[in-house]
Amino acid sequence: MGAVSAKLGKPFFPSQQFIADVAGEVDPATGGPWYETVIVLMPRRSGKTVMIPAKASHTCGQPVPAQAWITAQKRDNAVKRWRESTDPLVLAGWGKRTIGNMHEAHRWQSGSLYRPFAPNEEALHGDDPDVVFVDEFWTLGLLEFQTIREGYSAAWSVKPGQEWLLSAAGTHASTAMKDARKRGRAATLDPYSRIAFFEWCIPETVDGAPVGKLGDEQLLELIMRHHPRAGRGLRPGFVAAEIVRNRTAAIRAYGGLDSDTSEAEMVIDSSAFRRSTNRTRRIPGRARVAFGLASDPDLRQAGISVSWKDPTDGVTLTEVIETRDQVRWSVPAIIDLLGRWEDSCVAVRSDAGGRDLADDVAAEMVHLGIDGARLVRVSASDYAAACHRIRSGLESTPEPRVLQLGERDLRRALQAAGLRRGVWVPEKGPVAVLDAHTLAAWGADHLPVLAQPKRPFRVL
Question: Which of 27, 197, 215, 391 has the fewest CB atoms within 10 Å, counting from its CB?
Fold first, then answer.
């Protein structure tokens, strides 16, 4: 395989050659491959797909006719992967490729065949594969993969064959990949196992702390130490920028950890969240409160929270009012709240994160004659200060200075959020309710001075 790939212009990296050496071990009893299943879990840009044309050519380029098949998330993805892997074969003049609607094939003079197939049970019924590639394995559910496998594995009841399961790290929905990882790790302890398992990833914890808690430079150093292409073309500067842009995505893409590996971790200390949860101390009914209104940058969700600062001890109480998908509902909802709490205010971001929302609220306030001073526009610098204030208030010791009710929506937002350049960012999902909590607490600290209503007559 290594020699074939070199002739195709893609010499193997050591990691690729290691996989080929092990996966290519032969069962002396049958002359076929010893390993019936090859599981390859590697970070992005490791060269997983480079191995496909080398393996397909090694299988189909023998004098005896053979079949190689490839599938992926959908048939269109399978065809795309097949075309990419046959392009170097066409350039090298190896075999002949034909492309037609549902009739894609690459054929050798010996009669060997390499084709894509749809990821379903019927696609390979009646065919006779010698090797099957399942790319983008992380996209498949366990039951879905088991159904696909039933379609091609029957051929191996009468002859040896081999399946290659290739994947980057996955998500909470990657149940097929998670099952394969579990079986693969167990197989490394069994010298007679028919599973060849390869996994490159960073450790989930460093010195007992989740990798998500590491500083950017520490995380970059960890990724570069474990990535199979470190020192072989992987650019540290690019990975560093990806860490800053979206830490969870970078850990998954280049660190090889599933995006939900540390899903239970919060952007604040989880013990602080428990300590700051107080369901008995509530906001008084006649208190002057501040509402926070925020939307997800992708307009997937909006949230409204309320906050009040107790003047007796300075402790800030926060509560979730409402969290819903979409954004349109939030403006009439906040206007209704302002109408019912006449001396309240609402804090909304005035930067790109909420300017449109703030403008819509302001327009409704003008239309209804609501005092414009009750809209607190929070600038980007003030928002960064607000994030620091609520985080330090939740984590302060020995007693928290910010209390919350432990609502599920807030907990989920803290699990989905990251902290970049001092502000909350969505990493694993929408965090609108966390933004709303932050803005409400800031509003409670900066209640505007409202104009007193004019009296209709003078009191003597």
Answer: 215
Per-residue pLDDT tens listing for the chain (460 residues): 999 999 999 999 999 999 999 999 999 998 999 999 999 999 999 999 999 999 999 999 989 999 999 998 888 889 999 999 999 999 999 989 988 777 889 999 899 999 999 887 666 655 789 999 999 999 998 888 998 898 888 888 889 999 999 999 988 778 899 999 999 999 999 989 999 999 999 998 888 778 877 888 999 999 999 999 999 999 999 999 998 888 888 999 999 998 776 444 677 877 788 889 998 999 998 899 999 999 988 788 999 999 999 999 999 999 999 999 889 899 999 999 999 998 899 999 998 768 889 999 999 999 999 999 999 999 999 999 999 999 999 988 888 999 999 998 998 899 888 888 889 988 878 899 999 999 999 999 999 987 665 555 555 5
Separation of alpha carbons 135 and 129, rounded Å? 16
Domain locations in the chain as residue ranges = 2-199, 205-255, 270-445
First to last CA, the chain: 101
How many degrees, rounded to 5, is the angle at CA 16 between CA 201 and CA 170? 35
Task: Sort strands 402-403 and 375-378 into parallel, antiparallel or unpaired.
Answer: unpaired
Select the CATH number that applies to the domain covering 2-199 from these four: 3.40.50.300, 3.30.450.40, 3.90.25.10, 3.40.50.720: 3.40.50.300
CA distances to 80, 140, 143, 254 from 168, rounded to whole Å, are 17, 12, 20, 9
